[in-house]
Design a protein that fits this description.
This protein is mainly beta. It has no helices and eleven strands. Strands 2, 4, 5, 6, 9, 10 and 11 form a seven-stranded mixed beta sheet that branches. Strands 1-3-8-7 form a four-stranded antiparallel beta sheet, with no helix packed on it. A hairpin with a 2-residue loop joins strand 9 and strand 10. 27% of the residues are buried.
C-alpha cells in the first residue's frame, strides 16, 4: 500500500522560509504526477503546486508563484516544496498527493 508522509512544517515569521518534504513508500516519485495541496483553517482544500511525471513541467497557483518551488529527488524518492517569503495567508496544513493517495499533512503557521 502506498503511504505518503509529509514533514518540514513549523512556525515561522512573515518573510521566513520552510522546506516541506514528502516521502512515499511503495511508490516511485517519478512514476506519476504529484501535487501539493493545502487547507487553511475553516477553508476548503487549495491546490498549490504540481510536478508532472517526467519532471519537466511544474505548476503553481498564482498566489505562490515566485515564492514556492516544487522539486523531487528520484534517488531519495522524495518530493519537496521550498517555500520562501512566507505570508500569514500561507498558514495551512500541507498535503502531498499522488493519484488517490494522501499523507497526513504537515502544519505550516506563518505569524505576522
Amino acid at each position: 500500500e502506498v503511504q505518503m508522509v509529509e514533514s518540514g512544517g513549523g512556525l515561522v515569521q512573515t518573510g521566513g522560509s520552510l522546506k516541506l518534504s514528502c516521502t512515499a513508500s511503495e511508490f516511485t516519485v517519478g512514476d506519476a504526477d504529484m501535487t501539493w495541496v493545502r487547507q487553511a483553517p475553516g477553508k476548503g482544500p487549495e491546490w498549490v503546486s504540481a510536478i508532472n511525471r517526467g519532471g519537466s513541467n511544474v505548476y503553481y497557483t498564482n498566489s505562490v508563484k515566485g515564492r514556492f518551488t516544487i522539486s523531487r529527488d528520484s534517488a531519495k524518492n522524495m518530493l519537496y516544496l521550498q517555500m520562501n517569503n512566507l505570508k500569514p495567508e500561507d498558514t495551512a496544513v500541507y498535503y502531498c498527493n499522488v493519484r488517490t493517495y494522501w499523507g497526513q499533512g504537515t502544519q505550516v503557521t506563518v505569524s505576522s
